[in-house]
Amino acid sequence: MAGILDGKVALVTGAGHGIGRGHALELARQGARVVINDLGGNAKGEGEGRDADVVVDIIKARGGDAVADYGNVGDEAAAEAMVKRGIDQWGRLDIVVNNAGIVRDKAIWNMSVDDFDLVMNVHLRGTWLTCRAAAQHWRAVAKAGSGRYPGRIINTTSGAGLLGNFGQTNYAAAKAGIAGLTLTLAVELAAIGVTANLISPGGLTRISSTLGMGAPKEPDDFGPDEFDPLDPSLGSPAVAWLASDEAQMVSGQCIRAVRDRLSVLKGWHEAAGITSGGKRWKTEEIGKILATDLFGTRAPGLRMGG
Ligand SMILES: NC(=O)c1ccc[n+]([C@@H]2O[C@H](COP(=O)([O-])OP(=O)(O)OC[C@H]3O[C@@H](n4cnc5c(N)ncnc54)[C@H](O)[C@@H]3O)[C@@H](O)[C@H]2O)c1
Prior knowledge:
By secondary structure, the protein is an alpha/beta fold. The protein has two domains: 9-265, 3-Layer(aba) Sandwich (Rossmann fold); 270-306, no CATH class. The chain has eight helices and eight strands, in the order βαβαβαβαβααβαββα. Strand 4 (95-98), helix 4 (113-144) and strand 5 form a beta-alpha-beta unit. The longest helix is centred in the middle third of the chain and has 32 residues, at 113-144. It is globular. The model has no long low-confidence stretch (mean pLDDT 95). Bound molecules: nicotinamide-adenine-dinucleotide.
């Protein structure tokens, strides 16, 4: 049966487990050849392993094609190598799904600088590094040809980054940063036909099990038609579609796919506004304007602190 990604080559980072594994399996099911990147550490970013091999084996056993990559997304040379791996192997790159992630949760007063740096390094720096390498490649291909290439970037954000979550200042900052990065990529790459979108996924994985939700599950623990609200691959069909030619007109968007619900998320917008009439604001007067006129009446749901 023809898939919507026949002939395409994809990179999925952190595809050894959980949500990324679900994306990789679905992209392969839709006909893409997939670079399975995974450093193979634990959910806190400790250790290394060959976890990517398991997913390569599953894809091959199902008749697809995949290659393993064990690089660390936060390392410049490794990120460039994983982007190049599909090009070396199959002569092209069409899709980059940035999904690799770790958590090191603590309230900010207990969080070490190492906890902050490592989480930012994997999520935000890693996403930026592969996006830069892919953008450079697609720009060169576009310039050498018609001026356009239908490349696809799908980056992973989270409710913590979009709405805030206790104990996750490092993770939330990284995930919010990925949202800003992706909106900007959508602007920068539009002229060459590359789209950039966000997925905000869910599922019971190694990462979410650190919040006491139970033992993690892998997408291949479930049958193809089975529905489990905690299956980490429930958002993978949306990712596969965003990666396809059908989604050429969709860029700079965020899809939340959690349990059986799909939603389009919209970010910061002006909830209330007031103009000064061409004068400077005065500190002595601004409290009334903000507290009463803006937060109080025009955007009454808003409260700052207490
Ligand atoms: N599970 C959820 O409910 C949830 C919610 C929102 C967002 N997310 C995001 O989804 C993504 C996938 O997480 P998951 O929940 O499937 O957890 P997971 O631990 O099952 O998967 C993350 C994968 O990333 C890999 N990885 C970690 N550091 C890496 C590095 N430096 N280089 C390459 N690979 C690396 C891990 O080995 C692991 O296989 C993450 O970005 C996470 O923040 C998850």
